[in-house]
Amino acid sequence: MKIKFTLTLLFCWQVLYCAAQIGSFTAKKSLGNDMIAREAASMVSLNNKLYILGGYNTSGGPKDLTEYNPATGELKKLKNLGTGPSNPLREKTMFLVKGKLYNFSGYGTGVSIYDPGQDIWSVAHAQLVPGLIPDAGFVINDTIFITSQSSNNFYSYNIVSNTFTKRAALPGPTSRRGAVAFEINGKGYWGTGTNGGTDSCPQAGCFFNDFYEYDAVANLWTAKAPLPTGFKYGSGASVNGKGYAGLGEGYYDNYMPRNMQYWYEYNPTTNAWTKKQNLMNVSDATLASPYHIKQAAVASLGGDLYLFGGNRSALSTVYTDDLYKYNPASNTWTVVDSDLGKNRTSAVGFYSNGKIYAGGGNDSEPLRDFWQYDLSTDTWSPKSGFSSTYSERAAVEINGKGYTVGGYDATMPAGSTYNNYTDSLLEYNIAANQWTVKSPYPGGKRRSMVAVAYNGKLYAGAGVNANGHGNNKDFYEFNPASNAWKKLADFPTDFNLANEIKSFVVGDTAYLFNEIYSNWMVYKYAFATNTWTQKDIPDGMSIHQAFTFKGKGYAVYYTAFTYGIYGNLAEFSPATNTFKDILTFPFETVGQLVVPTDNSIYFGFGQYNFTQTGASRSNVWMELKFDADVSKQTGTYTSKSQNTDNTCGPFLGANVFQSLYDQEGKLFASLNTGNSSSTRSLCMEVNSLDPLQPYRTAVGKFGQLYNEKVMFFNRSLLIDGGVQGGGGRIFTTAAELTRFVQAFNTAHGTNKTLNDIRIISYFEHLKNDHDPLNNINSSEYYDVLTPTVHTYGADRYLEFFNTANESARGEIYITLSIDATPPAPTVTSQVILCQNHTATALTATGTSLKWYTSATSGTGSSTAPVPNTNTVGTTSYWVTQTKDNTESARAKIDVTVNPLPGALTGSNTWPSTMPHNVATTFAVNAQVGATSYTWTVPTGFVINAGQGTTSIQVTGSSPGASGEISVRAGNACGQGPALSKMITVGKATPTVTFNNVTRTYSPGAFTLAATSNSTGAITYTLVEELTTTYPGNITLSGTGNATVQVVKSGKVKVKATVAEDGAYVAGSKEMELTITKAAGTVTLSNLEQAYNGQPKPVSVTTNPAGLQATVKYDGSATVPSAVGTYAVTASILDDNYTGEGSGTLVIKNLTAAPDEVMLQSISLFPNPTTGRAMLDVKNGLVVQVSITDLAGRMVMSQTLVKGKMEVNLEGKAPGVYLVKVHSESRGTLTFKLYKQ
Which of 216, 602, 774, 992 places its Cα 20 to 30 Å from the Cα of 941? Predict the structure, then answer.
């Protein structure tokens, strides 16, 4: 499907590195039928429906065709008139003939036909007859009769023969325009209008009232009764056998032109005109009223006449989209729809609690309606309308109520009973659906005022007053609670006739902006201090709208690229007084209503300047959201603007983003126009396939010098307009991108990731088949871009950049690829041939082989080469294989032509005799061209290693054996002459091994044995004593196994000699024989001795007995005598034994008698005792106390007693107990304690 959708242009002066949010627009349900007000439309009826075409308003001639059903009120937009003759006239020149609509276009451009059954226009006649500028006409049977406004020529057009025929000239002056015409009973009727040429025409006579009948059979005009009043641009039609005409522009008193409301009926039977009810049944009036209309379209339907559109004023252009019905039977007019399209500009609105309230404005005529838009249901419902027709009001919402202030009504002429400007303040109660007039603005009547809400109050001022001046400095605060205004500080300067002062509130400050394109400033109002400040802002922006959204200030402005067409949206930074561009609107924004809500911003209505319909008023209703979701839609989505004359949308500057969305505002892609300073436009089209469909694959050169196997994502992006030096983003869901990578890996057995994705672009877009193989520029010219994959919420986007010399123009695909080059064929890389032998063709394993004689150049041959063997040396060949039209790399084959090997050298290094059972090396010098070496040895010799090489190891197993060792060099061509030498195997050197070389001392003898691989006898010799302190400690005797007589420990060097036998020569080996000391034991006794003042040595006993030992007391050889405790060590001192013992010597003073001090210091009482006694120790003595019975059993003991000690014998048997008190310095005192 082809779906026309909206664009968003994102400005970012640093290309893709800006932090601006991406906004998306979604078309919401419009208010009404999108039918703009106009004059001079054409209207016919068919199948109980009205068809309205074209007309004229301030923006030119619309090309739209609309179907209206009076029974249902449904209005349907049909195919625009865009083929062949594309411009309808301002006159009513569309006719219904046999179910089809015929439109005569102006200035000789031809006839177009509309088929309602197929909703298509076609060209019937490419060009009218020269000089025919259609003005009015009628239909008789299958022929259309048309008058010309530039002459009195009259023509008929036959739809069957598609031919024009000139008829009898029109009566009256030589040219006439603005006439009315209709058909009654097969006759044509025509009249009224004004002079269309150069004939003299007095002012009073320039509006004709003459009337004529035309007989098509006789080709004759006949004058009929004139109308009561002359006029031009009136309306006329026939119904029920009678003609009706009227309205238009005529003269009143003083010959001033005025639109008319008169309506007349013509009776062809009586040839008489009768005045009928004026439009909307009003009485005659000479001053302008809403029902004085010219250039209205009229058509008959169901016995009634329908009147649409027109111009309400002869002095001030006021177009209308009203639809009226006239009933001839009752002679009454009724309103079918007072605002058929609901299109408007300068509307007013505000947001409250999930709903938008909007209305008013004008559609060339003032509108009083008011509506509620429900965001959750996307529906409109009517509310209580305004009581007056003022537009350009300012509005705010405060605490659930809406307030509008000021306004302007362009339809009220100056000097009339109404004033164009108003100072009214209206309050709208949402709950009650009621408007209430509040205290008027005290600064005077004006329009386009500034109005903001802050802390429950309204702040208003500026605007344009009744004198047309915009330099109003006053500023007021309105308190809804008291219905009172308060004067505030004036603006710091005049606004220099700036008609559009726009504002928003950020924090506690209001920001006001002058719309003047140059000398642009921001005015800051601090609510808290009631003060103003101002600051210059750079030229180049003209503020159109300003608003606050989520605490930030935004402005809709124009630049040199967009002025009067598409506005830009910018975010304001209060810190720097600068704006940051966010986006450019995909629709025209002049006179739009902007309503911020909680989560999005709504833009509606406004005025077109350049559109596909030429309409001047809009009913567009768009929602702007930031950070759009990623689109999952399939089909073809095209980014075309509303202007068919510029299919690539609005002109853009450098570094501008343009984004592509589906009809729900969800994102496909965004591109940047690049850094070119030239003005450019940019169109995009996305072709989105079902992501579950198989992916397109191809093999070819897609931007590389070699073939690739490429898989294409199921979505392409077509670009019409360069993005050289810019870049863009392509948005996908995470699941789509992951599935694409998995499909590629499954197909090719690879492990690609998202980071391996490439983007290619190519010039296919003119073919429009979305086939990346149809590159119309060159089969090998593709731009390759390497994107980076970024997370976008739960989804992804691929961001790519272009250098200044690259372009993404054309069609863009997301791809994955691998090198399609097949592997080189399988070959035998080394081929050996013999000189002058017959060779065969080389072979390789592969498909479609090509043979080369160079690694990089030359032309391949499909015939395998046959090597030349005449010359010795190496020749290289290369071979490739081809698959999928892709040739592999070249595999190399080296062909070597060898001669027979020559004689070998090197035997001069060979030994004549080799030892028995010892590996011996034999080697020769390498021979050029030899690939192997064959060695032979005689019986009794064994080749251990190296056979086939230039060096071998040989072992002779039989001593005395001899024979010739020889070698030949060989290759594939054969073997060369032998090189040989006689070799004899000699006796080997024996090995000798000892045992028992380390012994512990033990008196007596032991056997020392040596072993050998020789069978010769072994003898032993004492070489030298190594321990010189004990000479002569070992005696050797015996042959084979020696007897060693040990005298004492020590170390000697001993030599074992083996005699020669049949296989080994004599040999010997020396070794060290070590006799280590044996372990002895030491026992200490007499470790506790009584003090007597004499030395107290301990007793030492050794094992073996009688060994000498050294004794030390606390490390000293001196024997102690004093009372005390001493650490004692005793070490054996002997040649053959070693050992040590230790203990503690205690010398006690146990028998000393107590001295006098002790006798006086110790007492025991009571004695005898029944159980307890007290031992009293005086004079600071410290004693040791022990208590035993007479059997020596310890009863109690205590050391370090000082002072008193209780002796407790309770529970003990009666008898005598010994209490011994000992002092180291005072002796020992013993008491006998008697227990009763």
Answer: 992
Q: How far is CA 1167 from CA 779, 785, 832, 1107, 1192, in A?
A: 136, 120, 129, 58, 20
Tokens 């010597």: give the residue.
Answer: 1145
* 635 C-beta neighbours (distance < 10 Å), count: 13
* pLDDT for 269: 97
DSSP, residue by residue, 132-188: --EEEEEEETTEEEEEESSSS-EEEEETTTTEEEEESPPSSSS-EES-EEEEETTEE
Residue 775 tokens read as 């590159």
Give 505: exposed, middle or buried? Use CB within 10 Å, 0-12, 13-18, 19+: buried
Q: Which residue type is seen at 1181?
A: L
pLDDT for residue 345? 83
CA angle 714, 718, 724 (to 5 degrees): 125
pLDDT at 566: 56
The predicted pLDDT at position 17 comes to 39
Backbone angles phi, psi at 1156, to 5 degrees: -65, -40
Between the alpha carbon of residue 998 and those of residues 535, 1012, 1047, 1224, the distances in Å are 110, 19, 15, 56
Domains of the chain: 30-282+289-337 (2.120.10.80), 348-626 (2.120.10.80), 715-765+780-815 (no CATH), 826-897 (2.60.40), 907-986 (2.60.40.10), 992-1025+1032-1076 (2.60.40.10), 1079-1148 (2.60.40), 1156-1235 (2.60.40.3080)
Low-confidence ranges of the chain (pLDDT < 50): 1-20, 83-86, 199, 204, 254, 315, 414-418, 497, 517-518, 560-564, 610-615, 641-647, 677-679, 765, 779-780, 1028-1032
pLDDT of residue 274: 97
CB 770 within 8 A of CB 718: yes
Nearest-angstrom CA–CA distance, 1018 and 1059 = 7
Closest by Cα among 81, 53, 56, 83 to 68: 53
- In terms of Cβ atoms closer than 10 Å to its own Cβ (0-12, 13-18, 19+), residue 268 is middle
Which residues lie closer than 8 Å to 635 by C-beta, 6 or more apart? 1, 2, 3, 688
Please enumerate in sequence order all residues whose Cβ is within 8 A of that of 370, keeping only pairs 6 or more positions apart, or say none. Answer: 357, 358, 359, 360, 382, 383, 384, 385, 386, 428
